[in-house]
Specification:
Layout: E1 2-5, H1 7-15, H2 19-27, E2 32-36, H3 37-51, H4 59-67, E3 69-71, H5 87-95, E4 100-102, H6 106-109, E5 113-114, E6 117-120, H7 122-132
Parallel strand pairs: 1-2, 1-4, 2-3, 4-6
Antiparallel strand pairs: 5-6
Helix pairs in contact: 1-2, 1-3
Length: 133
Amino acid sequence: MRLVLDTNVLIAALVADGVCRDLVRVRLRSHTLVTSDILLRELREKLRVKFDLTPDELPLLVALAERAETVRPAKLTPSVCRDTDDDWVLATAVAGRADAIITGDDDLLALKKHGAIPILAPRAFLEFLDCQA
């Protein structure tokens, strides 16, 4: 599957043990991760500002940069999300022909899907994977 992970999922995977860490470190190895430069910049900025981390020294982010397919986000007009910054996640998913968006953001989760792309919480996505096994 082609997946877009919102920055909040990646941050949770880095700073706390739990569902997001399991998802990112173990369960996604056989899937294609799709991202964009704008999402990677947002991730680096939040890690520096909120957590005082040096993103380029984190093995998970190095692996993400090496492994993920980076796309140029599609243009979304008009804005789709209540929080217009979240449109970048949707635009990345559209451009990357993603099969799903994984997020903990309530503004995105409220949409349930964008076009044919389902928007799932990390736990819901893990449950989906378990049903497929």
